[in-house]
Amino acid sequence: MRDGIVHLPASRWCRYGHYLLGTTTGADDEPEIRNAQASTGGLIVKSSIFTPDFVDRSYWLTSLPQMGSSAEPLPARIDALIVGAGLTGLTAGHDLSRSGRRVVILDSGEPGEGASSRNAGMLGRNTKHSFLGLSKSAGQDVAIRYFRDLHRVFLSSIERIEAEKISCNYQQNGRVVVAHTQQQFNGLRAEYEARAEYLGEKISILDEGVQSEVGSKSFVGGVYVHDNGAVHPGQYTRAFIARAKAAGASIIGKTVVQSIRREKDGFLVKTSNGMVRARDVLLCSNGYTASLIPWIARRLIQIESYIVATEPLPADVVQSVFPRNRTYIDSTRRPMSMRLSSDGMRIVFGARTGEPKNQPIRETARLIYDDLTTTFPQLRGYRLANAWGGRCGVTWDHFPHVGQHEGMHYALGFNFSGLAMAPYLGEILARQVLGAAPDTDFQTRSFPSVLMPARAFDAAVTRRVIRYYGWRDHASMRPAS
């Protein structure tokens, strides 16, 4: 990277180009989409993997009462307009409103129904960077400072939940990170032993003991991270809506921001619901932002993430899969996330990150079901009740970023780890608007881009990035020589 811009050497394109562009020959990388089959009187009958009341909506939202919103009239002039009613925007709106600013938070859909209410609800020190990798590339002091920042983010989430008595089914049940191969496990062990030594993280190494944590023969070992937790992300997001409203912020859904024009004393914002003038504009829509601001489009890759939830399962089946009711994730670059629903009756399973967003959700769900039942054969025959997706924002350097562009404030690039990070950066963003100087590297770090037109960031680019992740995962799955 030079001058904040990613330059890809020609040799690297030559080496990986055919793979990334999808021009390799041979069998399809993806497994076939298979239906469960039952034999009846010599006939093969295809049985559905979906319940009769299956819905393509987040389980976390269908388990809550419908909220509903309407496109209310916009005021003519306000102090702060926030684009995106997710955890970032709601937190920034809450803090600015409490400081006396007149705030409107807009969302193109239903407020609070974006990525934060659609994720797996895992709370921890999440990052796409490894401590050892960052120590090698940037130096150990930088790595320690960054991971301590992540710990501060994590602690701020827990402190907020406890201090404000946020009702979100919070459980500090720990997380198990699992490895498919000995090569992966060796790397995982080295990483977490370094975190324990330099950062004080409390961990336990699981080799044969991994079977007592997760009921699958797919994993050779893992690491148990003691203090990680879980929430019901639908309840969590609803609580942030309530606290922003209580502070005085107006939250308006079903309103698409179409353009933002800078003026002498602020901004003129055109929406599907009319025009509004604002002294400050805050961009808080993460993976949904790129089409609005070309400058951001060159810095943010939009990637779809997917999750399924099973129908309610018998208690003995649940016990056979997750005997200790923790959260679980594997150590690949396209990870599988696994946990129980908050009521302990369903498996919530995420996989197939980067599948095309225009692919029918049932088709994606079939692929995930294949991964689910391959990992946990005891779940074959049980059906899916929900399948859904959400758009994530991934940066080229895999760091989150807070800053300003042409006078607009932004907090973007959570890299699949927004549950704790988004509210924290919302607080940082509000302080930035109020003229404070936040003490965080997230604000001072340069924001790398690529030298290509914004329109190039389409599904094809996403597929190539995901293929690259797949290539790296495939390499780590090879048996050690």
UniProtKB/TrEMBL annotation:
SUPFAM superfamilies: FAD/NAD(P)-binding domain. GO terms for molecular function: oxidoreductase activity. Residues 79-431 form the FAD dependent oxidoreductase domain. InterPro entries: FAD-dep_OxRdtase, FAD/NAD-bd_sf. It comes from Brucella tritici. It holds the Pfam family DAO. This is FAD-dependent oxidoreductase. One of its GO terms (cellular component) is cytoplasm. The keyword DNA-binding does not apply. Keywords: Oxidoreductase. The keyword Oxidoreductase applies.
